[in-house]
Amino acid sequence: MPPALSSIIKAYDVRGTVPDQLDAGVVRALGAAFADVVVLPEQAPAASGAARHVVVGHDMRPSSPELSAAFAEGVASRGIDVVLIGLASTDGLYYASGAASVPGAMFTASHNPAQYNGIKLCRAGARPVGQDSGLSTIRELAQSWLDAGEVPQPQGVTPGTVTEQDVLADYAGHLRSLVDLSGIRPLKVVVDAGNGMAGHTVPAVLGTAAGLPALPLDVVPLYFELDGTFPNHEANPLEPANLRDLQAAVREHGADLGLAFDGDADRCFVVDERGEPVSPSAVTALVAEREIGKERAAGREAVVIHNLITSRAVPEIVAEQGGIPVRTRVGHSFIKERMAEEGAVFGGEHSAHYYFREFWSADTGMLAAMHVLAALGEAPQPLSQLGARYERYVASGEINSTVADAAAVAAFVEQVVTAEARARGEDVEVDRLDGLTVTHPASDAEPMWWFNLRASNTEPLLRLNAEGADAATMQHVRDRVLGLVRGEHGGSLTVPAAPASAGERS
Fold first, then answer.
1. Which segments constitute the Alpha-D-phosphohexomutase C-terminal domain (predicted)?
2. What is the pLDDT of residues 167-225, one digit of tens each?
3. Given the DSSP bridges, would you call strands 257-261 and 268-271 parallel, antiparallel or unpaired?
4. Which residue of 31, 68, 416, 455 is most buried, as measured by CB atoms within 10 A?
């Protein structure tokens, strides 16, 4: 029986286990379907003289070379040339797609365990391919071929060529052209690559491996060996346990900061000189401030996109700096769509994805890291002091609860919370941009707080994110909502009037 592609093709990408869900035959069919659905309708006919090709990159997983080669065969069977760029970070693939203005495919399962692999697809210029922009059609077409037992070969079509090209040096040079680090004060930075693709890209961008001049950076490498079995820790810095080695190394080496990348190096997490995490919301606000400054200096309006889970500090700081904050749903396809619609200069997510207009509105953890290095290198104070102004509130982080009916539970929470607010004579703001968001603006009776409940697309989970003006407020809101979600209905969402001291805010 052929695999059910509906089980591995998600809202934004392909993700499954090898070889039972993903093998050469499956990705060959997906490559041919990608060419039929995305590449051929988008690219000019060969008779026009325009080049037609697709770029394909892969991460360090043991299965990636074979799968990317099979995908290339599927694309080439449609008469499309393929350029294999080999080992690459996901933002390295976006660079190749954007610079050449051609579609692309990146083979990676990001931070998933070694038995997984996947594909991130993009149109020319690194524009996303998601469920609503071609991915569902690709799935249906490939599934029909797999069910029939063969991928039909178009009549009279000469297969395209498959060639190889290394774009690492060009990628590094492009990033260097966007953020100048040559004049900053010397910094010592520990980088945890998690045995992922940052071990390939950091030496090229922040070091001299790609032939670029040395920067005033003393890079202390941690787990730079490319190993898709992840022998040291999971390549997912969103989990606090996976930051412990970096935090210890920053303190041990007396470093100015630490950077942690996920498996495909498109996300970057930051810790300060004490080894304390700097929230992705704070990084979003810091980078936004820098990008707004550049836009305003050039006489241009500066729009910054942020998803609804980022700290309320982000839109506040954007507005204070003269920018225009635009709130959107969680997910890279939504961010990229709004980036294009608004002509936004920058976008950030709570999950440490950062999007730049000058990088084809695609996400790149490396460029965000360079902005942090530049900001710190231009300032006299340590990162803990520099970053404090961006950490105004206290967030819970994402907390998952298993529920049978996410919509019913969220509706129950909304009913209880709004009734409690009315009983106190106060109003709360409710919106459903992405799940349920309830916001209590600061008042004489209560500090500011908000929470969001979102259902998982793939699991019976309800995800809670909460934030408050101080730790006590956040904890009270978090615990009350969790009690409602998990059936512990006692208590009330009335926040104690006395806020926590400033020292408790972290």
1. 398-482
2. 999 999 999 999 999 999 999 999 999 999 999 999 999 999 999 999 999 999 999 99
3. antiparallel
4. 31
- 161 neighbors 74 (Cβ within 8 angstroms): no
pLDDT tens digits, residue range 308-350? 999 999 999 999 999 999 999 998 878 988 999 999 999 999 9
Tokens of 140: 């249906």
Its pTM stands at: 0.93
Residue-level pLDDT at 44: 58
Interstrand relation of 104-107 and 53-58 (parallel, antiparallel or unpaired): parallel
Angstrom distances, CA of residue 455 to CA of 18, 387, 488:
27, 32, 19
Mean per-residue pLDDT of the chain: 93
Active site residues: 110
The owner of tokens 């129950």 is 412
Mean pLDDT of 7-13: 90
| Distance (Å, whole) CA 449 – CA 438 | 9
List, in sequence order, every residue forming a beta bridge with 454; answer none if it has no partner.
463
Residue 398 φ/ψ, nearest 5 degrees: -85, 130
Q: How many CA atoms lie within 13 A of 269 on its CB side?
A: 25
Distances (CA, A) of 114 to 234, 235, 368: 10, 10, 27
Question: How many Å apart are CA 68 and CA 269, to the nearest integer?
Answer: 28
Query: Coil, strand or helix: which one is 386?
Result: helix
Q: What is the 3-state secondary structure (H, E, C) of 21-90?
A: CCCHHHHHHHHHHHHHHHHHHHCCCHHHCCCCEEEEEECCCCCHHHHHHHHHHHHHCCCCEEEEEEECCH
Helix, coil or strand: residue 137 = helix
| 146 vs 5: CA distance, rounded Å | 10
Residue type, position 70, single letter = A
Domains and their CATH numbers in the chain: 5-166 (3.40.120.10), 170-274 (3.40.120.10), 280-388 (3.40.120.10), 394-504 (3.30.310.50)
Give the H/E segment covering residue 99. Answer: helix 90-100
* Structural element, H or E, at residue 378: none
Cα–Cα distance for residue pair 48/481, rounded to 1 Å: 60
